[in-house]
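Database export, one record per block. Field names are fixed; values are copied verbatim from the stored entry.
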Amino acid sequence: MVQTLLTILVCLVVAYFFGELLHKFKIPRIVGQVGAGLFLGIEIIKKILFTTEGLETLSFLAHLGIILLFYYVGLEVDFKTMFRTANRSILISAFNTSLPLLLGFLVSYFLFDLGVIAGLIVGLCLSVSAQSISIELLEELRLIKTRIGMLIISAGMFDDIIELFVITGILSAIQLGKNKLALLTLFFDTLIFVLIIVAARLWFIPFILSFFGKEHSSTARFTASMIIVLLVASLSEVLGLGLIIGALVAGMIVRQTIFKDKVLSSWQEHDIANSVHIVAFGFLIPLFFVWIGLSVNLSLVVENFWLIFLLFVLAIVGTVGGTILAMLLTKGTAKEGLLLGIGLSPKGDIELVIAALALESALITQSIFAALVMMSMLTTIISPILFTLLSARYVKKNGAKFS
C-alpha cells in the first residue's frame, strides 16, 4: 500500500513539474503531463517505481479522471452560447471533423495498410479538437468573448459531441460484426438508457440536487453531483454505450436541471463545476495523462517517425482546410477560417481518451497508439504558437471584436 501511495505521489509531482516547466514556455501543461508519463515509462525507472498494484491503481484513477473530464465538459455545455452561432458552428464542426477523418482513414487504410477499424480510429483522432486547450489559450489572450472566441468554443462543443457519438457508434458497429443480434440489443439498450435518463431528469436528479442542496454546503452539492455522474456513467457502461457518453449526458442534464427547474441557484451550479474542476484537473486528469505517457512504447516512436509526421500534417491540414471551407460557405473570410482552424487544431484530451480506449479494446496496435500520442503532442505545442502569432496580427488589423 505504501509503495502504491509513493508511486501516485511521484506521478503527481513529476506531472506538475513537467507541466509547469513547459507552461513557462507557453506550451500547454497537458504536453508536460504526457511527457512526465513518457519519462516515468523509461524501462529502468518504470521497473523501480511501478509495481503491478501501483499500475492497476493508476489505471483506475486515470479512468475515473476520464469520467470527471467528460462530466465537466457536460456541465460546461452552454446551449445558449452554442445556438447563438449554431448555423456557422455546425457547418465548421461538420467540415473540420469530416475532412481530417476522411484524410486520416484513406491514408491509414491505403498507404499504411492499417485496416478499416484502425483507419477509422486514426481518422477520429485526427478530427477531434482539444476544447480544454483552446479555451485556456483564448482566456490567456483575452479573446474568449470575441466573435472568433465564441465561434471556437461553439464549434469545439459541437466537435466534442459529434466525436463522442461517432466513436460510440464505431465501437457498437464492431460489436455488431461479432454478434448478429447486437443491433437489436443495441437498439433496446439505447432505448432503455434514454427512458431512464428522461425519468431521472424529471424526478431523480431534481430530488437528489434539492435534497443535498438543503444543507447549503459545497461538500453536499459535490456529493450529489458525484452520485449522479457515477450512477449514469455506470448505467451507460452496463448498457453498452460507454462511460464517456454517460458522464457527458450526466453533466448536461445536471446543468439543465439547475437552470430550468431552479433547484439550485446559478452560482451553486458554478460551485459544483468548480469542485469537479479542482478534483479532476488538480488530481485525476494529470494522472490520466501520465498514464497515457506510460502506455507509450518509446522504441516505437522512432520506428514510426514518418507515420507520426504524416498524421501531424493531416491533422493540421484537415482541420484548417475544413474550417476555411466552412467559413467561405457562410460568407466569412479565408483569414478568419485560417485563424479559427489553427485555434481548433490542438489534439490532446478527447483524442487521447479515444486512442487509449481503442488500445485497451485491441482495436489499434501499440505502434499506432504511440504515433497518435506523439501527433497530439506536436499539434498541442505548435498550434497555440501559430494561433498567438496570427491572432495578434488579426486583432491589430481588425480590432478585438473581429467585427
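Remark 1: Residues 366-398 form the longest helix (33 residues).
Remark 2: Residues 2-124+134-398 form a domain with the Na+/H+ antiporter like fold fold (CATH 1.20.1530.20).
End of record.
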